[in-house]
Each structure stands twice: as C-alpha cells, then as structure tokens.
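FAQ: What does a multi-protein file look like?

Like this. Sequence, then tokens, then the next protein.
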Amino acid sequence: MLSSLGVIGLGRMAQALVFPLIEKQKITPERIFAVVGRQKSVNSLRPSLPKGLTLFSSEDQASVGVWHQPIQLLAVKPQQLEQVAIKAKDLELSYKVARPLLISLLAGVSLKRLQSLFPNHNCVRVVANTPALVGAGLTGISWGDGINQNEKKHVKDLFVVVSEVLELPESNLDAFLALTSSGPAYVALMVEALADGAVAAGLSRDLSLHLASRTLGGTALLLKEKNIHPSELKDMVASPGGTTIAALRHLEKAGFRSALIEAVVLAAERSRELA
C-alpha cells in the first residue's frame, strides 16, 4: 500500500487514477492530498470525492502539504505549468522529502523541461489514455535521471491498477501518445460515423449507436483474444462479390486507411512541436 500521494490538479485523468487506487485499497483516502486552482473548483469537486481525501485550493496556505508528499502526481493544464513550477520552487526549503518523485501526465512536456522546472524533484513522464476510466487504459512511462528501482516499482504500481503499463524511451512517447492517447477520439469518430450510416440505412439512432459500439468492441476483443492479424480478419469477413468487399472498395477509394495513418503521424508531430 502507498504511504501517501500528492496530486497537483484533480481533473478527469487524475481522478481516473486516484479513485481506482482507493477502490482497490492500494491507498486510503486519508493519505491523498490534492490541490486545484480555485476555491470554486474545490466546492464543485468535493461532493464527488471519496470521504477522507483532502482537497485544497492553491490559494490556501495549507496546500503546501501536497508538496510534502514523497510521490506527487502532476496533472494540471499545460498553461498552468509555469505557475505551478514557481510555486514548487518557492516551497523547496520546506520540503520534508529530500527529492520528491514527480510523475507528470502533461502531454508534450519533455523530461528535460520538467527537470529544469522542478530541479529538486526526480521526474517521470507518463502518457495515459482515457480508457483508464474503465480500467482498460494504456500507459507509457519514461524515466528521468536518478530514478531508482524502488521508485520505478511505486510508479508502475500506480498505473497497473487502471491500465497496461509499458516502459518506453522518451523518443517513443510522441508516437505512443498519437496512437493511444489521441486514438480514442479517432475511434469515437468512427463509431459515430458508423452509427450515422446505420441511421441513413433505416435504423434508429439509439440502436445504431449501440450496434456500432458493440461491433467495434467485439472486433477488438476478437483480434486480441484469438491473436488474429487485422488483415486476416478482414479476409474472413469479406467474401467474393459480397457486401463487405464492396464497402471496403469504397473505403479504399475514399482514402480511409491513409487518413488514419496521417492522423497518427500528424498527432505525433504536434506532440513534438509542443515539446
């Protein structure tokens, strides 16, 4: 069980990690100390938080307690990063831990930049995705300098609760983000488009969305459980002169595969630009 955790920013992704840790008894709510920007945010979040979890606004002097924790999860918006780093630097003399472990969830913020902004922390860069909300996430981790094996174990133990965890060189994180972190948006767009097609073909909206979601989820499960290559499954479904090959022909003419390839490449390039 984790001794304690500081959380800087308690948005959806941070909640997707923290709440399952509590549910699976990896940490008690009383050992989690979180800070958000304003008292208004505290008031809106508090009713939905597990009893015992301590939440401060950054304006509250007691929020310094978040920075006293040996492991800290950084999950603020990118535009808040500089301000948060200044706050951390102002408090460095009051740290109760020599070099706290800072785990960043911020997209496009490199380990080099994190270490320059938080020189008194040991930094870890993490890319997670939204399926973590239902315990089906993917998490890529890159280690900063000076991270020991015990710290690595603590970090992996945090994320394995909600996701499959992969240790990657930082140079791979942009591509990992483009596929796994941005990927749910591509998939959601695909489900919506498939449902629109079914509506156009005569099905109700609710039924169309249900069928599109189930078809996508079932196909992904089949590929994984039976270890089938996607091209093999495509050939299994597309019989000669049938409906599926006619549809696939149209998708090829429309550049469907190329559009998905370029979407991933462009997202990776954008991540590099942000860094």
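And here is the next protein:
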Amino acid sequence: MNERVNAHIMILIATILIAGSFLASQKLSSIIDPISLTLLRFILALIFLSPIVIFNKNRLKEVIKVVPKAMIVSLVYTLYFIGMLKALEDTTVLNSGAIYTLVPLMTAILCIFFFKEKIALKQLFIYFLGIISTCIVVFNADLNLFLSLSLNNGDIVFLLASFSMALYPVFIKLLYSKKDELLVLVFATLIGGIIWMSLTMQILNIPYEWNKLDLNHIYLLLYLVIGTTIITLFLYQKATLVLGAKKVMAYIYLSPALVAIIMFLFEGYTISFGVFIGILLSTFATIIILRQK
C-alpha cells in the first residue's frame, strides 16, 4: 500500500472520529463551558504524550525548535474552536453546518496564493456540488429550512472561524516538513493550543469548572482526548504533508453524512430519502475532488 493510499485512509479515519466527537461534545458541553472543555482536552492529550517526549533528549530538542512554527499552526487551529463555540451562542447548528461547507473552497482559493495551484472550472463546479449536497444533509432535505436561513452576528464569527480552519492545513503544509517526526509536531501543536486556549480563558474570564466532571463522563472525555485530539492531530498532520491541503479539506463534505450515520446508529436518528441522496452526492463530490490531479 503506497504512501498516498495510506494518507487517504488516515484522513477518512480522522473524519469519522471527528464526526463522533459532535455527539460526545454535546453531552459534555452542557456540564462545563465548551472552551474550558477544549483546553482540558489539550492538557490531557499533552500529559498522555509527555513521557514519550520528555524522556527522549532528541525529541525534546526538536520540540523546542518546532514550537515557534507550531504556535502559528496551533493559533489557527484553536481560533477555529474558539470561533465555533462562541458563534454557537448566537447562531444555530444548521447555520454553522451550512457555512462549514465553504471550508474546502476557501482552502482551494488559499492554495492559489500560497502554492500557486489552480482551480479548473470543472473543479469549481464540484466544490459547489459538495456545498449543495452537504447542505441537503445539514437541513435534513427540507427546502423551507434552507430558505429560512438568515445570517446573524454568530454566523459572521463562524465564517471567520471557518477561514481559520481553511488556513490550518495550509500552514501545516507550509511550515512543517516530512523530515520532522510526527510525534514532535503533534506535541508542539498541543503546547501552542494550550497557550492560546489559556489566554482565551483569561481574556473572556471563563471559569474552568473541571470538578463538575465525574467518573460517568470519563469515557466521553477519553474519546475526545485520545480519539479526536491526539489521533486526529497525528492523522491530519501526516495526511496533509502527503496529500496537500485541498484534498484533505475535501473530506469535510463527508462530515455531515457521517454525523447523520453515527446519530442513526447510536441515537436512533432517522435518515430520510432526501438526506440519503445528499449523502450520496457529498460522497460523489468528495471522490471527484480527490481524483483531480
């Protein structure tokens, strides 16, 4: 199995894990502030990885070298989380889901400026097909819900957050190297994320309230820490270095479909025929983008 196939498998696994995190985060965010929860995820993930890095002198030296670059990568990474969580105070999940479909197109446009890549007319059509198909899933194939979409201040915040997410794989490709050890990159990114999240907590005066979490929440917390923080950081950063930013972000079109499937399997969510068509179209759009040179 060649490196590119491995990278596609990695990013597909990461997309599935992130889709599952919506359900886990929803259950925990009702207990403590979501930004506080995100900071806790980063800290616990860093603690898990610390023994592997701290007791290896070479890795420790590399982390110190990489941290300045990681501060930039982690800034756009954490800005997305902060923007998303603050936006949801003023907007709906449906609105944010619709706006999030713009991320692959944003990334493709950014690649024109950073890597001199081009967007063919055919490819542009596929991006719009991806946006339409994922909106079908997000709005549950209800045209009235889509037509009632109106933008508010929260939507503008989430639009900026989505732009940060579009920058995330671009900066990974720009600043990190295949020669860098992946563990070092993830560790340095987590350090940066903790610094930015801690500053946010202080500026917004958000209480930590970690004591509210008990043993009943440990499985959900472990899933967020190991599954959607440590593992997805590894998978995203490795896959981006191999595939590039545009192809990695194309998998976003599968995200609402995967969330719908996970909700169907674990929460009894019903998938209508219209949503099923949206899932097929979003899968088709993703495959087409991935097949582009």
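Q: Is there any per-entry metadata?
A: Some entries carry free-text notes. For the entry above: The radius of gyration is 19 Å.
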